[in-house]
Amino acid sequence: MPTVTVPDKPLIAVLGPTGSGKSALALEIAARFDGEIVNCDSLQLYRGFDIGTAKTPTAERRGIPHHLFDILEADEICTAGDYARMARDVLREISGRNRIPVVAGGTGFYVRALLEGLFEGPARDPVLRNNLAEREQRRPGVLHRALSRFDPAAAGRIHPNDTNKLIRALEVYLAAGEPMSQLFERGRDSLSGYTPFKIVLDPPRPELQYKLNQRCLGMLEAGIIQEVSWLLVSGVSGESKPLESIGYKETLLFLNGEMPLADAVALMQRDTRRYAKRQLTWFRREKDAHWLSGFGTDEAIVSSALNMLVKYTQNLK
RNA sequence: GGACAGGUGGGUGAGUGGUUAAUACCAGCAGACUGUAAAUCUGCCGCGCAAUCGCGCUACGAAGGUUCGAAUCCUUCCCUGUCCA
Hints:
With about 325 residues, this protein is an alpha/beta fold. It has 13 helices and 6 strands. α1 packs across α13, α10 crosses α11 and α11 runs antiparallel to α12 (about 260-285). It binds one RNA strand of 85 nucleotides through α2, α3, α7, α8 and α12.
């Protein structure tokens, strides 16, 4: 029996820090190559969170299909695993129509979960997690000590202060009955059938920071305060995950009278800048990525991206 | 003109004789990341060298002085703020 090799399908990913112009570039690419946009931003998944997440307004989408936007309510949670599953379904659907998926977003962890997959481990267990968190709070250090006993390899890689990651490692061990580091060795369920082309936007740092500062001011003008007020009025809990994100968190501080507006904005700008830096750090580790030093809105960047992609798509056809 | 208060590393701001290249925070830089990731966490951050424990130099408005030793005490000068004229 001769093996039939099915050629890989194209998949374009537009990555980069917030404010680098991912959405704009993705739109250009989709328009040029018969593409459809697939969101890869952990917060643009949420319905009602538009201004603070800089979601592309429907009117500016040029009729191009956008997937995985507004699919979650504020009280819902989407883990990297959840995201990867949903996104893979969408990918297949788009490819099935002979169109090209253009993944755009700044959530590096989701990108990795989508493309490279996660290890086969147990899902989250809220009760267990709370329990572990409480123990750590009562006696700082216990989690790391416990992990050192059950899974020395993982404990060596996780800092004693990094409670979030300690909890996950312990949770895995307790739920699976096997050390996480051992489960890792079995590999991850990476995405098959695609040869992704990754573009990372990397605008000059000072310009990005300036733009980010301006954008925060712009969000205020666009009515982020009203957006948050409306969300609260419509019953969204102040503790819901999206309201704890950058932009919303600070707006809430102001609305609760805990901080003058000017301070809240300054905080928002600071957090945004820091976030952009962290994103860049993440993407630097992304394998086989094509870096473009400019904004996705720059003519030159757009044309060099399109040029690279012409070759890429031809090779795959 | 007089009376106070104060001038500290890119910024805010501790420190009032040695253990201080100088707390902390901000800014900046770098990194980690396998199911809450816009989360969580780590390192660096005067200069030069060694690039591992280290070594040398320059620093707390300026110039002098006291002292074994000063960002810290004294003198003069410069500057800033508040108050009285």
